[in-house]
Amino acid sequence: DPQAQPLNEEEMARLALGLRTRLQNDAGNVEGWLMLGRTGMVLGNAGTATGAYANAYRLDPKNRDAALGYAEALTRSSDPEDNRRGGELLRQLVRSDHTDIRVLSLYAFNAFEQQRFGEAVAAWEMMLKLLPAGDARRAVIERSIRLAQEK
Questions:
Q1: Residue closest to 45 by CA, chosen among 3, 15, 5
Q2: Whole-angstrom Cα distance, residue 130 to residue 147?
Q3: Among positive and negative, which fits the CA dihedral 62, 90, 137, 126?
Q4: Beta carbons of 73 and 49 less than 8 angstroms apart
Q5: What is the CA radius of gyration of the chain?
């Protein structure tokens, strides 16, 4: 319902608990795992988000939402091995579709954080080609490119 109030943190936590409970009996439900992954991200619960997205991706590796969610959770991890795996998954996503703004954005910021500045600039430049002239994101991307080129 577009008119409904957004859930507060307590309601989100209850939603996550309900989803977890339901998924114990319906472990093959990709959409349920995706919803639990998104809920985990909103709540800042990295373990829940990563585990849920991993399950969704394992069940349906061709699902771009599952792959992108899993990659994002991995790149936000404090574990360098998770970051490496997340970066590799993002590279695969970019290779399969280099016109997806969400994928390019996450890929660029991940590359920047990993000090792969040339890759970050290339992804941001691709985004600039895809975004319309008046898009507000262009200014942020142009600043990011300048910052990466200074490194």
A1: 15
A2: 21
A3: negative
A4: yes
A5: 17
Contact 111, 125 (CB under 8 A): no
pTM of this structure? 0.84
Task: Write out pLDDT tens, residues 16-69.
Answer: 889 999 999 999 999 999 999 999 999 999 999 999 999 999 999 999 999 999
Distance in angstroms (rounded) separating the CA atoms of residues 48 and 108: 25
Domains in the chain: ranges and CATH: 1-80 (1.25.40.10), 97-151 (no CATH)
Q: How far is CA 14 from CA 11, 20, 22, 30, in A?
A: 5, 10, 12, 20
